[in-house]
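PROTOCOL LOG
Step 1. Enter all chains and additional molecules of the complex.
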Amino acid sequence: MSNSSERSRPPISSAGLAGLLAWIGVLVALSWWMAQQSYSWLPVQASTAAPLVDGLFSFETGIGTFVFGSVVSVMAWVLLKHRAEKYDESDAEPIEGNTRLEVIWTVIPLLLVMAIAVYAMRVNTKLGVLGPMEHIHLANPVEDQGGYAADRLPAEQVEVIARQWSWEFRYPSANVSTTELHLPVDQPVSFRLVSDDVIHGFYIPAFRLKQDVIPGRAINFNLTPTREGRYRLRDSQFSGTWFAANQADVVVESPEAYQAWLKNAASQPLQPGLSDAVIEYGERKQLKNPGWATVPPAPPPQVNVPGSNSLPHDA
Amino acid sequence: MTSATFPPSPPENTSWSRYFGFNTDAKVIGIQYIVTAFFFFLIGGLLAMIIRGELITPAADLVDRTVYNGIYTMHGTIMLFLFIFPVLNGLNNLLIPTMIGAPDMAFPRLNAVAFWLVPIFGALLIGSFFVPGGPAYSGWWSYPPVSTQNPLGHFINGQGLWITAVALSGVSSIMGALNFVTTILRMRAPGMGFFRMPVFCWTALAAQSLQLIGLPALTGGAVMLLMDLSFGTSFYQPEGGGDPVLYQHFFWFYSHPAVYVIILPVFGIFSELFPVYSRKPLFGYVYVCLASFIIVALGLVVWVHHMFPSGVAQWMRNFFMFSTMLIAVPTGVKVFAWLGTIWRGKLRLTTPMLFCLGGLFNFVFAGITGIMLATVPVDIHVSNTYFVVGHFHYVIYGAAVMGIFAAIYHWFPKFIGRMPYEGLGKVHFLFTFVGANLNFLPMHPLGLMGMPRRVSSYDPEFAFWNVLASLGAFLLGVSIIPFLLNMVSSWVRGPKAPHNPWNAIGLEWLLPSPPPEDNFGEHVPTVIARPYGYGTGEPLVEHQAEIENQLTLQEASA
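Step 2. Run joint prediction.
Step 3. Record the structure below.
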């Protein structure tokens, strides 16, 4: 900025220029380091979507660190160097603007955000995360879904039923239902998301994927888990009193373990599934002055395997 | 040109009691707005303390979950509809007429009605704490079907009162917007063309235009929600053929632009204050003015970025991602203009300047996370998590509220006639800046790790960052004490303020402190230059030296 504001003196001394370039070098290095660090702020990567999302986030962290660092550097420099002396009541040199600079700081950010947007749009296309509008036109089988071509998708969908406040998962052909989602690793899976009451959010942070579950519609949602482990499924759209407790575990396991689990589950008799809300609601009724009004929780779904939602999870 | 519509002036009422009645003087209304807003700010802040108290431990153990949900809903609602909008309307009332040399607002009675609606819907909203079943609990978005469940089935219920209050708030804001837009367009001093108008007036004009365009959508959407809740219609009920996602469109069509309604006047404040305390003209004045209206145009076509995971078509996701990204450009123009303004200036680190610099710092940070949120794949992961809560609070508290504090310290001498204390002001700044960053920065890692917003309990792995956030929140709670102390004590016994304590350029600084009821009255000066002529030595108005001499003489003889 200084080079345009001064016409009489040379814009910047060679020592100043060297210092400026060195500082830009420091900022670039810092941005690079932050971009690498950003991966560690996120949960483990457990789906095909996760590396794509994390890569984009890392890129944005790098760019963002550089922009933020530059602005703060200018502010810090001004604070150190351009303070009025004590008792100095005079004004500074009146610089009203500079059209060339205005053009530069319009065009560069424009190019920068468009570059980020194009990158994000590519990731977006690759993810092919589907919303219900697409669901209406789902007849198109060539769309990329969950990072895999649609023709690799299994014919059968796992049905996810969201309620106030429990998650139920049904495997139609095995005739199994559960309150703990089991998925085979490295195999595309397709869900049919439905809600019995209000809007819920189907959100598995380790998968980096989220889809609202809208009452009155069935939403197709596809993903591919890539890492064995136990992860949290959280309700991500506020659904009422026990919204926070509306969580379930997702177990990603080897195809053999998955098949064995499915087979074993099919032989179990139906029993009440997990619902923390139902338990808390029961305890709350004992209280003299429990709080404000609430919708009563739906009874726990009848399932073959309740599973657990209190074991240690990876993310 | 306004004397015909202005009521014949009664003897000037200067007693304190005028602040408690139906008064049509914009300067009285401005102070009424600001004081009312800070009353509700204390209530909203108290609720925030309960929220952070609950979240300092993973279990839901401080209050019942129903109580938590009501409290976080009311925190958001009070802070937006009863604090930030009224406090900004208060600044509009004080600043717009004095900055453009008008005797009052265009429609003084409408102005007073708009203000008096605020305590009315405020009382409705606070009253909803005491109805059977408690207040609304479905969040400040009040998405159906949760918001239409009405567990007790009473006709009078918290959610119904909430919707009524929000609709009344919309009516009040529309009245205010009509007034501000008309005043700016029609009542400027002679010689004050649009490109001689202070940037605060530009941003107010832009923000209030957004109100006029957006609010009808929200108000209409809210009325339909009330009909669904109370009269059994099914605009948003899937079982009756309605669509709950439709409400989200109505809601965000207004409520995203609402964020610009909040932040644009704060951009105006930054643009006014950086030149004063850097002793330099605003860098690129014309670009800063125009950028406001580019933000308005783009701000109207970004609302779907709140709904990326709600189930919208892929083309919409891409379109709204690009439009959201574009907003960074005019916003960047403003940020660079402020940097250009302070660059090589002669900075005076007064309390208002510190709040501006802190606000700018926070705003740039919020801008970075805003770009991240605009990109669909990252948004899918972090939407409805604490990442968004952190981003939002950096914008609203970190930038907007800090800008508002800057404005209050800067213009307090003008409208109260007394000087605020610098020492208390600096303590207030320090607590606010540290508290806000300690409170809101930890929300970003929480969101990235996958902690949903609006939860009353959470998994233990989130505990560390939540403890930090809560400590920051408590510091923010404490930060209000030096502020209140400063305001009350300087109002009562602060040193008398001269007409221009900061040596600032602007029509409002050519008025006595505090200004008379009709401001310049018959003697509106003729503007002959652009604002912010710091260092140029050129006068802003005709006969400026005489006006200033007269004011100085008055002060000396008083």
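Step 4. Note key features.
DSSP finds 16 helices and no strands in chain B.
Chain B touches chain A through 102 residues (CB under 8 Å).
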